[in-house]
Amino acid sequence: MSVTIARSLDLKGLSCPMPIIKTAKAMKELAPGQLLEVFATDPGSVPDFKAWAQTTGNPLVESSETGGVFHFTLKKKELLT
Amino acid sequence: MLNDVLILGGGVGGTVAANLVAKELGEQARVTVVDTTGIHVYQPGFLYVAIGQEHPEALQRPEASLLRHGIKLVVDRATHVDTAAQKVVLASGRTLRYDELLLATGSRTVMEEVPGGAGAHDFYTMDGATRLFKALQEFEGGKIVIGVAGIPYKCPPAPVEFVFLLDDYLRSRHIQDRSEIKLLSPLNRAFTIEATSKLVQPILAERGIELTGFFNVETVDPIAKTVSSLEGETMDYDLLVLVPPHRGQKVIEESGLGDERGWVPVDKNTLKHTRLEHIWAVGDTTNIPISKSGSVAHYEASVAAAAIAATVKGEPPPAHVYDGKVMCFLETGKGQATTISFDYDHPPVSPTPARRWHWAKTLFNKTYWHTVPQGRLP
Predict the structure, then answer these.
(1) Structural domains of chain B in order of their starting residue, each with its CATH number
(2) Element (H or E) spanning A36, and its range?
């Protein structure tokens, strides 16, 4: 199954809490189930994205790091029925 | 020919830099400060005005009284910077030329960017703080909600300080039993800085101040008295206090000197404009991802002043650059406070809240007029 990223955000160089706020804004625009990928360099974003995903119910489906750049993939939560 | 050093803005950064440049260059330059009001305002005092512990008059002095002899003060508003001609156009139609230009125009608050936010209270302007205190005096109980409607904003610890001082205020009026204070935070902790959050969160809990995390204020419904977040949550309130969104000044935006929010891109160490020659910026004015605070403006001003003086003298740039130093006080209520200090290479540290830090902050606030603007403190 191929995974399509609906939107990609480059938040490299931004410091906390900007990455979270920009991500929250971008997620609002997505449809339920769509994926958002984020690139960030702030080390604090690792625990922040994990906690944000848990609190808001938008699953963090992937989190990785390559050469100091963190990559997160978040899924917009499904509407409650 | 005499060099013209032009400084836009008579706040902390502009005033400290003007005094240091004039001191260093003496007769070698004409130093001019352009300020829209000619009144220097000690903005950290707004917090105290909002809870009735300070009078607005005590926070204002004529800018001219803070500038060294020989510095020219022009009370006018800069409307356009022509970087090709090295000229600044003022609202009166007058133009001033420059050899070196320091942008110290600071930030402005734009509550109008928050849909429904026009009626929300704030303590980021003198008017806002005065109006907020009036509302608190009339407050007889209910739910007070404090939220953040935009990042970056001046004085990052201020919302946390405000809830502690507000709790003291409600207790002094014996209405705390019929009141609630809710602090909405952009992150899942009280404050961006983890070490400081760990110190203040237990005190919030002890005072019964409830913290709601990941609540980035997006809209307000002033009729229903609710505030909603980017994250999709809604909370009701009786009295709403918001940290308004901030932007750079219009002259920066309209002259194409800044980014889309009007923040001036500078090198984080030299404070020189990243694209334009003969232009520096300090304080809130810059796009450096660091606290927008008086302490930053103060430290940066001495770096920019030395660099400008060296340029005028035809000397190489000074070795001393801005290292990202920030120093803030944070009131924790009941006469106690802590501090937060860090720089680009050192993570923030905060001592256990104690009375001596509250006294230190009070002393600093009172002696400010005789130390900081003149560049007497390092």
Answers:
(1) 3-106+249-322 (3.50.50.60), 112-245 (3.50.50.60)
(2) strand A35-40
Instruction: Tell me how far apart the alpha carbons of residues B273 and B158 are, in angstroms, rounded to a whole number.
Output: 29
CA of B154 vs chain A CAs: smallest distance (Å): 14
Instruction: Give ipTM to 2 decimals.
Output: 0.83
The confidence band for B53, taking pLDDT boundaries of 50, 70 and 90, is very high
Instruction: Enumerate the residues of chain A whose CB falls inside 8 A of the CB of residue B192.
Output: 16-17
Cβ distance B214 to A21 less than 8 Å, yes or no, reads no
**Beta-strand pair B246-248/B107-109:** antiparallel
Place of tokens 């003022």: B90
Q: Does the pLDDT at position B312 exceed 90? A: yes
What is the per-residue pLDDT across B244-264, written as a single tens digit (0 to 9) for each? 999 999 999 999 999 999 999
Phi, psi of B116 (to 5 degrees): 80, 0
Residue B345 has which token pair? 């290479």
CB atoms B216 and A28 under 8 Å: no
CA–CA min distance B192, chain A (Å): 7
**Rounded Cα distance, B3 and B127, in Å:** 39
**C-beta atoms of A52 and B232 within 8 A:** no
- Rounded to a whole number of angstroms, the distance from the CA of B138 to the nearest CA of chain A is 34
Q: Work out whether the CA dihedral B150, B153, B159, B162 comes out positive or negative.
A: negative
Q: Catalytic residues of A, which ones?
A: 16
Domains of chain A, CATH where assigned: 5-75 (3.30.110.40)
